[in-house]
Amino acid sequence: MSVQLWTWILVGITFSLYFGIAIWARAGSTKEFYVAGGGVSPLANGMATAADWMSAASFISMAGLISFMGYDGSVFLMGWTGGYVLLALLLAPYLRKFGKFTVPDFIGDRYYSNTARTVAVICALIVSFTYVAGQMRGVGIVFSQFLQVDITLGVIIGMTVVLVFAFLGGMKGITYTQVAQYCVLIFAFMVPAFFISMQMTGNPIPQIGMGGKLEGGTFLLDKLDTLHTQLGFNEYTSGTKSTWDVFAITLALMVGTAGLPHVIVRFFTVPKVKDARKSAGLALLFIAILYTTAPAIAVFARTNLIETVDNQSYSEIPQWFRNWEDTGLIAWSDKNQDGKIQYVNGAALDGKPKYTEARGANGERLVSNANASSNELYVDRDIMVLANPEIANLPNWVIALVAAGGLAAALSTAAGLLLVISTSISHDLIKKQIKPNISEKGELLAARIAILVAIIIAGLFGIYPPGFVAAVVALAFGLAAASFFPAIILGIFDKRMNSKGAIAGMIVGITLMLFYMIRYKTGLIGVMDARPASEWWFGTSPEGFGTVAMIINVIVSVVVSRMTEAPPENVQEMVENIRIPSGAGEASNH
Question: Which of 37, 41, 73, 279 is most buried, by CB atoms within 10 Å?
Fold first, then answer.
């Protein structure tokens, strides 16, 4: 069977499963809609959290980023997994004990202020919409390539699927759908890795195969280093980023993980505080399966790409290249007119490919924005995982399986983010502030309408992506680090932190991060183009600036809180109680 037929079959089966779960898990109350009734088991919540966390960025983009960045790409592995440890130790149990539905709910009650709640809602919406832009674009890329539909139609199909299981089931439907999506995405990620590791190194375990020897006795990583240096790139296993920027990006991703509202809300779905800790640990285990495999896939894909394409005649290029060429995610510009693809260090094009209708002398798709460098090959990093099975000549069903896994990853995270947007509006704005006497039925209706509006906006992000969409996920973590994390961590561990300090810190942190992100990533402030790295503040990249904004947030919060009145006594007692383990003191009473 063809790849397209296999893809239709596997995507049809998995989508039918998601729809079936959504119908089975219909939410009948606001508690079921917001936190799945608070009765999810730690095992199911661990798998759902892993699926919620492992978005299109983890499944599609991360290995692609590492395959091009080499050693520098380790910041994503260290930051995202390290963030989960922070979340499990410092946040999840305490927030679960507090027992509220959402992060703005915690901030509003902890800081005894509707202003703080409103600022938190605005931060949640900015972070969630920034993050969801990448997810919907990932859905469009997968559909456009594997199902041979227009990328806009692909995004619309993805929007419809998310709408069904989010609209019907809320967190209850999303939770059990995400359990199924985790199984699909992890199977889809691992199967090609086993195949390719065995094919290249004779070892089926990719984590070991990455460090193994090839048929001629050369270590795979040594061979990749050699290929890189021959083409003018830095060695794959050596880094080019400054120590400070590596630290800043890693820390921003870590604290951003611990401050992401769609991940935090998952720990409100379990019955007990102890279960929050268990589900955080299980989620880390489930995530580690993919995250320890991603570097291996990056190495396999990078090696295969260079060997398959570099210095090859276009007339003899494998079919996978022509398939992806039609999507605009890979392009060749024959600058020296020799009919061969020259892949060397340097930008092949100015920006993304701009196709003309004409074809070149070799049958290639012509691009109109080639630049002066000698590199002739443009490769979008997002295709590396999706194209990897095709490059390695794996069976068609494996190629289709990867497409189904990519969709599962993107849709699971999109659903979680959209629920955060919905609950922020219906619960934290309408119920808590605008219309406190709203009935449960009315609140549920408001939540569903908010989801519908949010999905339409998310779809527009996917169809008309912002210019910085390639790094949009890392930037979302920077926004979460700059806004939520200090307010939450200080709210748990600093009794003296008051509403004025938290509000000032969140506003300063997210404003600073947004300014830096727009100024140095999109160039919308002051100039038409993003500013060069030589102008970064303290040598900090936009992806790492969340660390600087977070530190400034903490300083502003602490200084303002110490210069203003202390929180009420009942709030200080509440903070003390959050930190006392359940059952503490019982032994001394008997």
Answer: 279
Placement of tokens 């779905």 in the chain: 269
Give residue-wise pLDDT tens across range 7-21. Answer: 888 888 888 887 787
Most confident of 145-159, 180-194, 512-526: 180-194
**Cβ proximity of 542 and 516 under 8 Å:** yes
Of 361, 375, 301, 302, nearest to 332 (Cα)?
375
Pairing of β 330-332 and β 377-379: antiparallel
Q: Which tokens is 562 given?
A: 């110490």
* Domain end (from 350, 379, 408): 379
- Confidence grade of residue 531 (pLDDT, cut at 50, 70, 90): low
Contacts of 518-527 with C-beta under 8 Å, sequence gap 24+, read 520/545, 521/468, 521/471, 521/475, 522/466, 522/467, 522/468
Euclidean distance between CA atoms 286 and 432, whole angstroms = 36
Q: Please state at what angle helix 3-24 crosses helix 396-423, rounded to 10 degrees.
A: 30
The residues pairing with 378 across neighbouring beta strands, listed in sequence order, are: 331
Domain count, the chain: 2
Q: Compute the distance between CA of residue 495 and CA of residue 153 in angstroms, rounded to an integer.
A: 51
Q: Is residue 118 located within the same domain as residue 237?
A: yes
Query: How far is residue 503's CA from residue 490's CA, in Å, rounded to a whole number?
Result: 12
At residue 529, the pLDDT reads: 46
What average pLDDT does the segment 225-248 reach? 86
- Alpha-carbon distances, residue 556 vs 109, 329, 492, 566, 571 (angstroms): 21, 44, 17, 16, 21
Reference 123, options 428, 483, 489, 502; nearest CA is 483
Range of the domain at 166: 3-304+390-465
User: Mean pLDDT of all residues in the chain?
Assistant: 80
Q: What is the pLDDT of residue 387?
A: 84
On whether both 335 and 300 belong to a single domain, the answer is no
Same domain, 221 and 334: no
3-state helix, strand, coil in the chain (%, to 5): 70, 5, 25
For residue 344, being part of any structural domain is answered with: yes
Which among 413, 418, 516, 73 is positioned nearest to 253, based on CA atoms? Answer: 73
In this structure, the answer to whether residues 410 and 363 fall within a common structural domain is no
Whole-angstrom distance, CA of residue 424 vs CA of residue 502: 18
